[in-house]
C-alpha cells in the first residue's frame, strides 16, 4: 500500500515539475509553443499497459491440495474513441484485448477530466464496462483446475469475463498541436466466472466466481 501511495504521489508531483520548466517555453500568454490546439471534438486514445497482481494457484499432491499465489503480469491494449466537450472534460467508448489465464475483450465507457490542457497536466479517468471472454465451451477428457472440483474427466469447461471498474490517474504531455503522450497508473477490479459441466448419467455443474484486482502501468498516445 505504501508503494502504491508513493506511485500516486509521484504521478502528481511529476507534472508540476515539468510544468515549471514548461513555463519557460511559454510565450507569455499561458500556452505552450503549440498553437491552435483543438479543445473540442473527436479524440482517439491508443494505450498499451501491463496489469500486475497475484493469482491463486492450487497444486495437487498425493494427499492434499497446496494453495498459494503467484505474480501474474498481463498485457493490455485498449483503444478509445470519444468527444472532448472542452479543454477539461471528455467521454468516449473503448474496446480492448487483455491476456490473463483467459483472453478478455473489454468494452467500456471512458470519462476523463484534465486539470488544464495548455501544458503538462495531471488527469483523472474512470473506465466502466464488461469484459467478454470465450464464447463457446470446450470438452476435456481429463481436466485439472485451480478450484473445485480440481480434477474431473469427461467434462465441458467454459471461461467467462464479467463487470470491470478501472479508475486511472496520469500525466498528459503535449507532443504537437494534434497529439499528446500519456503516462498512466490505474487500479483494475475485474469479475470473472468459470463453469464446469459433467454430462454423464447424472449431470453435474460447478461454477467458480472470483475477483481479479490488478495494478496497471501504461503509456498511451492521444490524437485530437
Mean pLDDT across all amino acids: 81
The CATH architecture designation is Beta Barrel
The 3D shape can be described as elongated
Order of helices and strands: HEEEEEEEEEE
Percent helix, as a range, is under 10%
What is the count of DSSP helices, taking H or I runs of 4+ residues?
1
Overall tally of structural domains? 1
Strand order of the largest sheet: 1-2-3-4-5-8-9-10
Describe the main β-sheet briefly.
Answer: 8 strands, antiparallel, barrel
Low-confidence parts lasting 5 or more residues at pLDDT below 50? 1-9, 11-30
Rg from C-alpha positions? 22 Å
Distance between the termini: 36 Å
Strand content: over 45%
- CATH class placement: Mainly Beta
Characterization of the model:
This protein has about 220 residues and is mainly beta. The protein has a single domain (about 1-60, about 65-140, about 160-190, about 205-224), classed as Porin. The protein is about 10% helix and about 65% strand. It is built from one helix and ten strands, in the order H-E-E-E-E-E-E-E-E-E-E. Strands 1-2-3-4-5-8-9-10 form an eight-stranded antiparallel beta barrel. A hairpin with a 4-residue loop joins strand 1 and strand 2. It is elongated and about 75 Å long.
